[in-house]
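Fig. S4 source data, part A: sequence.
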Amino acid sequence: MGTTESQRGRTPRGRAASIGLSRAQIVAAAVAQIEAKGLAAFSLRELARSLGVSPAVIYWHVGGAKEDLFAAIAATITGGLAEAQDPSAIWTERLRQVFHAYRASVHCHPKVSPLLGAQMKSNGVASLDWIETVLVALAEGGFEGDALRDAFNALIGGLCGFVTMELAPGPASEDGAWEERVAQRMAEVDPKTHPLTHAALPQLANRIFVLRWQNGAQVSYDDGYAVLLDLLIDGLAARAANFPNTSPAEPKHG
């Protein structure tokens, strides 16, 4: 009676290894690798080795290119956002709920954030549920045609862009030299040439996007995100109120 690959202590590969391996397991392993090493260091070959399969098996499950895997990761992060909203709430409140849930979801995997805001390679139909959720709320507010498109881009660009920038990784530096240089440069700001910046440094240092050495995984940007969310949604509501042949939306009842 012959011995199997597992009995000989070998890791099964190819078609044999793909049995029982799911798309969700591949995505989870990819997210874990990105969280451990960063997006720039992501390696499909290393992912395949960690799962005991060939890269071809991963492509068979998620698509024919690395971009398909990235799209699947993005869709996983945004996949449950529709459930975050109260179906009985008006459209503006549902958008608030969805975008708060979006930020919370991305904060669970901060090193994946560039895929959701700064990488076109993660675009794809895998995120259709997320797109539909936002469009339904905007359409209920009276947006259509070009106005619907522009409102969608304002929300996604502003709010998703905020989260991507909030969680942007700093330069790889094991000794903290970069952080020390930034802090030192801020301590040397001249009150004569930049009086307002110098006066506000206690509130600004390491707390605004362009004067910091830690990202939003370490320092809270909750208040800034809330301000942007209110500005965008209140602004869209004011714009919607001026649409012809529309009246204030009533709450939906499920």
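Fig. S4 source data, part B ends here. Residues 12-64 form a domain with the Arc Repressor Mutant, subunit A fold (CATH 1.10.10).
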